[in-house]
């Protein structure tokens, strides 16, 4: 979307200055032609005797010559709106006036700019036709009767060569613009693909968390069912034990409700049934270390400060999922030789913390696609649990990922007006 907005602003700015640019080009061509009218012959043949011998007279601007130059240059202000009409007008005006005003002195800058415009805005066939027409006019246009034949031929050849150069330049500009447009279209398509992929990754995270909710619910309800059955059997024989079982039911259900309430916002926007495959928690961290070592990465794990008994099950599972994604990135993309994983849970501070470090290529190698979808998934998982996620380059090289998740999850606000 950012790229589309940028292109739209560029197109608007170009349209607003289009007429001004063409007016400046037309005035510039007019001034150049006036300057050439008075200086070209004198600079080309500075000796007055030689000019007389060749039948050439230095032009002195008059009202008629200025009007002739204006007829071949000022219409260029319309060159982009009516490219063929302006080209035909400037070329025919030059052909009709060059005999009257001495063809060597009347500049061809107007027809050349018009030819350049046709070649840069029209299809290739039209560009070739315009170039051939201009070259034919320049080569075979009638010359003034008192002008040297040799000089006439040299001038005709020069003008035809300039026409060919202008056509090639216009065609080259058109090819460059088409390639640029193709690149921009590919960039827009790639941006749309990245947005779609990002949404897909986020939805995958939602499905994964839905599995975690399923596991929490299944475990809690199983415990409630067992305690309820025990209370039912003991209610007459041992009322005290039955009361304790019922109290345990209440505690278990309360804990499960708190865990589910903390994650229910994740499920509100999800569509379709969630997968119910069992999830894994931090008891499998040793498997991640084995995975790293199997890939040739020297790994170390620190869990001395992590007490699973104070960490809710869904947070424990989320921490393991983030660690697994980080380790997968290290093996696949980082090119690291060493890695370090640390887990800590501070009951007093009320948060669980995960740190994953490596000495690989850094964030440039964190994701092979260049869009860091792995980092996006980890960040989304931490955000949904009201946690903080930081991925940064290490000073000594490599990447450091740090996640902090509060153990006491905030309850989602409710609109009491709707019950």
Structure, described:
This protein is an alpha+beta fold. It has helices at residues 2-44, 48-53, 63-73, 83-101, 109-121, 124-140, 149-237, 239-268, 285-294, 313-334, 373-384, and strands at 298-305, 338-346, 351-358, 388-393, 399-406. It has 3 domains: 2-190, no CATH class; 204-268, Up-down Bundle (Single alpha-helices involved in coiled-coils or other helix-helix interfaces), CATH 1.20.5; 282-406, Heat Shock Protein 90, CATH 3.30.565.10. 65% of the residues lie in helices and 9% in strands. The chain has a 5-stranded mixed β-sheet with strand order 1-2-3-5-4, with helices on one face. The chain crosses the membrane at residues 20-44, 56-78, 84-115. One of its GO terms (molecular function) is protein dimerization activity. InterPro entries: HATPase_C_sf, HATPase_dom, Sensor_HK_TwoCompSys, Sig_transdc_His_kin_sub3_dim/P.
Number of H/I helices: 11
| DSSP, total strands | 5
The chain-level structural class is alpha+beta
Structural Rg: 40 Å
Q: Any idea what the shape is?
A: rod-shaped
The multimeric state of the shown protein is single chain
Number of domains: 3
Gap between N and C termini, in Å?
Answer: 39 Å
Order of helices and strands: HHHHHHHHHEHEEHEE
Low-pLDDT runs of 5+ residues are 10-14, 267-278, 367-372, 411-419
Major sheet details: 5 strands, mixed
The pLDDT mean sits at 76
- Portion of residues within helices: 55-70%
Share of β-strand residues: 5-15%
The neighbouring-strand order within the major sheet is 1-2-3-5-4
């Amino acid at each position: 979307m950012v790229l589309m907005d940028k292109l739209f602003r560029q197109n608007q700015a170009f349209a607003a200055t289009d007429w001004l640019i063409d007016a400046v080009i037309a005035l510039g061509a007019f001034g150049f032609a006036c300057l050439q009218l008075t200086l070209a012959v004198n600079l080309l043949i500075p000796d007055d005797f030689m000019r007389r011998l060749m039948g050439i007279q230095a032009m002195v601007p008059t009202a008629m010559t200025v009007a002739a130059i204006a007829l071949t240059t000022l219409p260029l202000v319309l060159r982009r709106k009516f490219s063929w009409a302006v080209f035909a007008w400037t070329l025919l005006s030059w052909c009709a006036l060059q005999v009257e005003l001495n063809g060597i002195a009347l500049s061809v800058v107007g027809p050349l700019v018009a030819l350049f415009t046709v070649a840069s805005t029209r299809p290739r066939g039209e560009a070739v036709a315009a170039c051939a027409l201009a070259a034919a006019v320049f080569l075979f246009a009638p010359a003034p009767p008192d002008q040297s034949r040799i000089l006439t031929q040299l001038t005709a050849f020069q003008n035809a060569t300039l026409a060919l150069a202008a056509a090639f330049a216009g065609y080259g500009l058109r090819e460059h613009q088409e390639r640029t447009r193709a690149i921009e279209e590919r960039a827009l398509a790639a941006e749309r693909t990245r947005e779609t992929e990002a949404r897909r990754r986020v939805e995958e995270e939602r499905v994964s968390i839905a599995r975690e909710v399923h596991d929490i619910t299944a475990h809690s309800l199983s415990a409630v069912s067992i305690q309820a059955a025990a209370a039912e059997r003991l209610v007459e024989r041992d009322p005290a034990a039955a009361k304790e079982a019922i109290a345990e039911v209440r505690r278990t259900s309360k804990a499960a409700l708190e865990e589910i309430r903390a994650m229910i916002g994740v499920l509100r926007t999800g569509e379709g049934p969630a997968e119910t495959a069992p999830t894994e928690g931090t008891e499998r961290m040793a498997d991640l270390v084995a995975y790293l070592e199997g890939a040739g990465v020297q790994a170390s794990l620190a869990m001395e400060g992590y007490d699973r008994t104070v960490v809710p099950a869904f947070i424990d599972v989320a921490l393991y999922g983030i660690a697994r994604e980080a380790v997968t990135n290290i093996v696949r993309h980082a090119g690291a030789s060493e890695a370090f994983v640390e887990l800590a849970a501070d009951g007093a501070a009320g948060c669980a913390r995960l740190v994953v470090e490596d000495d690989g290529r850094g964030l440039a190698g964190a994701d092979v696609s260049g869009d860091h979808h792995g980092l996006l998934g980890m960040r989304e998982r931490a955000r949904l649990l009201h946690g903080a996620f930081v991925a940064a380059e290490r000073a000594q090289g490599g990447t450091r990922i740090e996640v902090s998740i509060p153990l006491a999850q905030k309850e989602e606000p409710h609109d009491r007006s709707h019950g």
